[in-house]
Amino acid sequence: MSDSSERVHDECGAADCFLPTDRRHFLRNSFLGVAAALVATGMPRAAAFAMPLEFTSARRRAGNMRDYSVPIADGAQIDKDNQVILVRWQNAIYAFNLSCPHQNTALHWDEEDHGFQCPKHHSRFEADGEYIPHSGRATRSMDRFAIQRAGSGVSIDLDKLYQQDTDGALWAAAVVKL
After folding, report:
1. Which of 27, 117, 147, 153 has fewest C-beta within 10 Å?
2. Residue 130: which domain range?
3. CA distances from 11 to 19, 23, 24, 153 (A)
C-alpha cells in the first residue's frame, strides 16, 4: 500500500475491490451481511434496523473529489474529515453536508426514526435529507453534494453542494440509484 486512502488487495490487485481491507471492515461487513439475511428471513423491523451510525473515510482523494465504497445496508456513515454524511436508503445513496442548513450545527442520526436531527434547534430530516415541516427552525432540506457512480463505489464532488430551495433540480438529481 502506497497511500492509506487507496488500499489494494493482494487477492485481486484492484483499489476498488469489494474485499474488506482490515479486521474492522471485515467484522462490519460480516455483521451487516448477517443483518441483511435476518431481514430477508422476516426478522422484526425494530431488530433489523438496529444498526449504529458508522464512521467512514474516503478511500481515494483527487482534488475536491472523494471516492467511497457503496454502503452494503441502509444506514448512515459520517466522514468527519470531509464533513460528509453518506446515506444508503431504500436503494439510493445520498451525500449530505454534515451541518444543519439552519445554523451549521452537526446533525445526528436518529436510529429509531431512521432520520437526522439537529441537536441545537431540533429540526428533523428524513433519511433522504427532506426537512420534516414544523420540526424545528430549519427552513429547507439538508444540503446535498453532487454524487455519481464510480466503478464499484461512489464519487462525491466537495465543490458542488446543492440547496433544495435555490438549486432544486440539481438537489433532486444528487442521488445514485441502486
Report:
1. 27
2. 52-177
3. 9, 16, 18, 19
